[in-house]
Specification:
Elements: H1 13-24, E1 30-37, E2 43-50, H2 57-62, E3 66-69, H3 83-86, E4 92-95, H4 112-130, E5 135-140, H5 142-153, E6 158-164, E7 176-177, E8 187-188, H6 194-205, H7 210-214, H8 219-226, H9 228-233, H10 242-251, H11 257-264, E9 288-293, H12 301-310, E10 315-320, H13 327-330, H14 332-346
Parallel strand pairs: 3-4, 3-5, 5-6, 6-9, 9-10
Antiparallel strand pairs: 1-2, 2-4, 7-8
Helix pairs in contact: 1-10, 4-5, 4-11, 8-10
């Protein structure tokens, strides 16, 4: 055989599976995990977490379940600090988005609305397969964008929409006109430093995670170098780099969901179809709660914009202090408390 054909990236679904198993072993509550097969044979990796001490399972079954949708490059393992707490009184479902984690990795169209539609259809078919009538839908980052789009299309299935540092809401700022409007005025963009531009052009040339994959055996080290915070966020649970390994193996598989994300995004991470242009399509009666990390790069002012657009509709915007973009991992106790109280307003 050709000498180069045996080069393997240090990853496989089985390594992802064992990294995930190590994480899920921390859970105290009952975990049921399986692949949910969609009509087109794509499979969605799914967790269902229930409280074993609630013997009256009828009570828990009566509560509207909470469904958690992770963000870009994530997977169900990232909710490790939240699943037990949030499943105390109701069933919690978490799944790997189509094209991410352990779910199937189909090809995605390069058109933004078609790529989005492929994500949304997979979520709806997943819901149908599980027979969930209604849910409290929570999405983080890209998951928040998709959860909102889902709720616009299937509002009768959602009791409350919870958005955590949601991606893709604001419109890209337009270039400013300088001067008084005379012929001396020129279009002046607020220009990022040159090194940022160089990096962005390099990144937009690749799929966002290609660099991790291209690093081959050095990939996990790269994740640790660039995201040391991930290791810190979970270091009381794991004394090694379990979490880093999990994130690495989630993203070193063949690219799929990230191709869909790339179709939906412009450079520097703006959405091609900003969600603020569509939030008015949510039913006026739909309660929406928007949580932001006070230290995050995501602008919480967008939440206020959404509240303004929705007028008298129930919209709340909350800042979680001392939390950055991964609010649920930075301040898990506060995050769990807030989400629990939102869920309790439903039933």
């Amino acid at each position: 055989s050709h000498p180069f054909t045996d080069f393997r990236l240090p990853t496989s679904m089985s390594l992802l599976k064992s990294a995930e198993a190590k994480i899920l072993a921390c859970l105290q509550n009952d975990v049921w995990s399986r692949f949910v097969t969609l009509p087109n044979q794509n499979r969605i990796w799914t967790l269902k977490v229930t409280n074993k001490s609630v013997r009256k399972h009828k009570d828990q079954a009566a509560q509207t379940p909470l469904v958690m949708v992770h963000g870009f490059g994530g997977g169900v393992g990232l909710w490790i600090r939240n699943l037990d707490a949030l499943s105390c009184s109701r069933t919690v479902y978490a799944f790997d988005l189509l094209g991410f984690g352990r779910s199937s990795r189909p090809s995605f169209p390069s058109d933004a609305s078609l790529a989005e539609e492929q994500f949304i259809t997979s979520i709806e078919q997943w819901r149908q397969s599980l027979g969930l009538e209604r849910m409290i839908l929570l999405g983080h980052s890209l998951g928040g964008y998709l959860a909102t789009s889902y709720t616009i299309q299937y509002p009768e299935r959602v009791s409350h929409l919870i958005l955590v540092d949601a991606w893709g809401f604001p419109e890209r700022p337009q270039p400013q006109l300088q001067g008084s409007g005379g012929q001396g005025s020129e279009v002046k963009r607020v220009s990022p430093p040159r090194w940022v531009k160089a990096l962005v052009s390099l990144f937009s040339f690749f799929n966002p995670l290609a660099i991790i994959r291209a690093a081959g055996p050095w990939g996990p080290g790269l994740v640790n170098r660039f995201r040391p915070d991930f290791k810190r966020k979970f270091e009381d649970l794991f004394d090694d780099d379990t979490m880093t390994q999990y994130i690495y193996h989630c993203n070193a598989q063949n690219p799929s969901g990230e191709v869909g994300f790339k179709a939906m995004s412009e450079s520097l991470g703006w959405a091609k179809r900003p969600m603020v242009q569509r939030v008015h399509l949510l039913p006026p009666s739909m309660p929406v709660s928007m949580l932001y990390g006070a230290l995050s790069w995501v602008e919480s002012s967008t939440g206020n914009t959404v509240a303004q657009i929705r007028g008298k509709s129930p919209t709340s915007v909350m800042l979680i202090e001392e939390a950055s973009h991964h609010v649920y991992a930075d301040q898990p106790e506060e995050f769990n408390r807030v989400v629990e109280s939102i869920c309790n307003t439903v039933d």
